[in-house]
Specification:
heterodimer, A: mainly alpha, B: alpha/beta, 15 helices, 45% helix
Amino acid sequence: MTRTKIAALIIMPLLIFLISLFLGRLLIDPLTLIKVLCSKVFFFIPMEKTWSDAVEIVVLRIRLPRAVMAMMVGAGLSISGAAFQGMFNNPLVSPYLLGVSSGAGFGAALAILMDRGAASIQFSSFLFGTLAVLLTYCISRVYKTTPLLMLVLSGIVVSSLFMSFISLIKFVADPEEKLPTIVFWIMGSFGGVRLEDIIITGPPIIIGIMGLLFVRWRINLMSMGDREARAMGTKVELLKVIIIICTTMISAAAVSVCGIIGWVGLVIPHICRMWVGPDHKVLLPTTIAVGACYLLIIDNFARTMTSSEIPLGILTAIIGAPFFAYLLRRSKGGWF
Amino acid sequence: MYKIQIKNVLCFLILMLTINCFFWENMALAQEKKTRIIVDNYGRHIEIPKKVKRIACMPGSSYEMVFMLGGKDQIGQIRKDHRTAYPLANLTNPDLINYSSSLTNINPKARINIEEFIKIAPDVVIYYNVPNAIQKFEEAFIPVYVYQPNKKSKDFDEAIRGEKNTMRSFANLLGGKAVQKAEKWCSYYDEKVALIRSRTENIPEDQRPRVYMGNSWGRNPLSTWAGNTMTFAISICGGICVTKDIKGAKFPEVNLEQVISWNPDVIIIDNHGREPDKVIKNICNDPEWSVLNAVKNKRVHRIPSGVFFLDKGSSRPVYLLWLAKQVTPEKFTDIDMVDEIRFYFKEFYDFDLSRKDAEHALRGWDGNYSNKKSTKG
């Protein structure tokens, strides 16, 4: 990897992060905004407060947490996708393969149906997301090993089970009130993100990302297949468990706070692979930067295009698909 | 020439006579079966028994409207939440617990189980405008009265005309004294709207308070209301609905930044969620919401409780009066909502609402849905 690439990977997210602080439904004079930011960054220099409370709250408590959350989730989902694609040696795998999203979706829908508050929705969705993956893992366990095919198949079983639970809840839910909430929740949005959410969901996502980065070199071995990896002396089962735990932590936390955001975990790894090649040692850090940028850009569209929020699930593919199609045509598929 | 004309006239007469006969026959049949033909809310002609005795009230506000029109003894089926979610419904009608609610174990707008309906054989089913359900009812020869509460209308006058027509059509369905009551209600509605209009009409556009409607089913009211019904109601009450330009979804989600950029002067919270009071408390204590004019000036209000939701069904005139008083309080200082709501209950539900209960209802009766369990049975 060249130095320019490394520099781009560091500067790009920061730049987009700064730009997104300037975008929003409330018109804020850029100069005022810079002042607000400076007053917080250089808090030791006394500065006259010339802006209203509304501006400060919008910048620091609405735009900032939202941008941070979008970046964390984007980074987390992309790196999980890349790790899974390496582990399963399959380009069609997404971080939701083992049923975490349908489990988490079910948990959230259940909490919404039972009229619970936002905190319980998050907790219940995290809990069921993790439970679903645990169930998948237990089903696929054969003689102290978990063959990849078994994992994939039991993931499908558990996913579809929880998917029908979600449908059941949608069927029972009040069509006027709860159904729209459930549907909107499942389509994903960062609309409700607050400062506290980052404190709650930040740690699992960051720990998960660190964990994956830690084992990233060994994923290269895994992508040669279970038997070869074992022959090379890798503790395959342990590695699998670590990867599954990390990705589950990331995606359950992400889904619990902002709904099921598809596409990112599936496609960002491919885009990165086209760019830096299939070596996971380089690929995983790249997905963090690109995923963070991508989801942040998408979220900027979601919150500024119209006065009502546009669900992320709609935008990720509408904006991402043409771009990906273009890359596909250009590279002629020769990167995996 | 002459002959041909006579021939023509004769032919015409014979034709008329035959058609007439057909009609006579049909009417005779109708008389024999003791049925009558009415037009429902959607403009369909339906044949119902002369004296309707067992009505299945499926859509939300249908029970309340039938009850208001004096059709208490003509109800056979109600939705389960009619007696669990609205405390005032139980208070005003002691018979409520005796009605069957066996048909509504699941979401009433989902696919119906037609056999359940056939088993119970109601005289008429009041149902939503769901074409495939209606078709099923028709195939089973169950008269179905299509009720469409939120029709699209151009302006407020058209909306009110629609509501009055709905009420009259309901009265037609019930027959008897209901017809007079519906007329009384219509004139009451006109009177209240005229009163509100006379006081708010001349408020210039730039002095109108900006109103935000929030739903109470989350931690904060970021899912809002959109649509003409809401926009018209707020503008008649002297305000501007900030979400008036949102098209599409009925309950769109917005973000806090958008709400801050609207900076509403009044926030109205509905009763649909679990704990509206808690939502109000949450946003009043939240530093992020505190920058809004409405929160600063303590103008966050909760819609009062009614026999059904106060803002739906027959109680809309009272709701509009209440809303006007919240939006432009200075114009309605002489109006005492306790008196108004008691008058409405006496006059239309034939129920003496005590002062204490009226005040309680105006405060929202401690949360409609949270009372679910305590009012059961």
